[in-house]
Amino acid sequence: MAVTLSDLVVKSISNLPKNEGKAFLASQLKLTCLEDDDNLRNAIYVDFLYDNLMFAVEKGFTWRQVCTVVTFCDGILKDSKDKDITDALQFLKLQSFELADVLGQRNFPIYTDFVFQTYLRHFKLFKYVFTQERDILKPTVSLRVETPADPGSMKQSKPELVWEYEKQYESIQREEAEHANKRLEEKAKTLETAEKQAKERLNFPIYTDFVFQTYLRHFKLFKYVFTQERDILKPTVSLRVETPADPGSMKQSKPELVWEYEKQYESIQREEAEHANKRLEEKAKTLETAEKQAKERLEKISGVQEPLSKEKVGELIQEIIGSYSSLVVEKVKCNIADVQEDLEFKLARTSLPRPQALGPPPRFNLKPKTPVPTPKKTPPKSPKSERKKSGNSRSKSRNK
What we know:
Coiled coil: 167-201, 263-300
InterPro entries: CLAMP
Radius of gyration: 64 Å
Region (Disordered): 352-400
Number of helices: 11
Low-confidence stretches: none
Order of helices and strands: HHHHHHHHHHH
Structural class: mainly alpha
Keywords: Coiled coil
Largest sheet: none
Distance between the termini: 175 Å
C-alpha cells in the first residue's frame, strides 16, 4: 500500500533539519533503528522518500503536490522493484497521466526529469537492494573454560617441606631452561652478525673495484660536470624585412602586355647570360685540358733521346698532329655550341608576342659577314713596257 502523508506532516518535515526530518518521516512510517547496520534497507527507503519530498519543496511545489510526489515515488519503488527496466518505464508511463493532472505543465517535466536522473539511472542498484536479502554476519567467539585439576586423595599428599622443595627445584629447572634458550638465541645472533660482517668484508673489494671502474676512471668527467657551469645557448634570430619598391607614379606606368613582355624578355636575357657564363667556363676547362695534354706531349718529345729513328720521328709527328687536331676539334665544337645557343635564344626572343605599343621587333642579322677581299698589290710599271705599249698602239692605228 502506498504511503500517504498530510500537508501538516510534510510542512513539519520540510522545516526540520535533515537528520531530524528523516527521523520524523521514519516515525510517521513506523520504521525504527535507522542507524543500525542490520536495517540499512529501511534507511535507504527513508532517504529515497525524503529526497523526493525535499526536491518538490525546493522547486516550489504546492503542499498537495508534494504529498502526491511522496505517494508516487513510494508506489513506483514498491511496484517496480521486482520488474525489468522496460516494465518500470511502462508503469511510469501509466502513472504519469494522473501525476500530470496534479502537478501541472510546469512542475510535471521538472519532476519526471528528477526521477530519470535519480531512480531510473540507478534502477539496478535499487532493485538489488530491495530484492536481495543481505547476508547476516554473526561473529563466533570460542570461550575456553579451564576447570581446576583434581586434588587427589589425602593418602597421596606430601609433606609441606617436600612440596616446597619440589616447587623450588622445578623453578630452578625452568630458569635453567630459560637461560639455555637465551644462550642459544644469543649464540644464533652472534653467528648471524659474524656472517653479515664476513659478507660485508667479501663485498668491500667488489664495491671498491666498481668505484675504480666507474667513478675514478671518469674522474675528470665528473669533475668537469660538477664544477663547470654550463653555457646557456640562447639562439639569436635575425629578422629581415624587405619592403616593396616604390611603385612610382601612375603616369610612368606601362600597359600590362608591355610589362609582361619586358619581364619575359628580361628572363630570357638572364638565362642567356647564365648559359654564356657556363659556356665560357666549359670552354676554359676544355682549353685548359687541351693545353695540359699539349704540354705533356711536348715534354715527352723533348725528353726523347737522340739520334731518332725514322719510326720514332713518325710517332712524334702523329702525336703532334693528334694534339693539334683534338684542340682544333674542341674549339670547333665550342663555337658550334655557342652559335646554336645564340640562335635558340634569338628564336625565343623573336617568338615572344610583342605588343604594338613597342613598335616593330628588332631584326637579327643571322647571315655571317662575308670577308672583304684584300686588294692585291700590282708591281710598278717600267718605262720599257710603257714604250712598248705606246709603239703597239701606234702600229695598230696605222694599220687601221
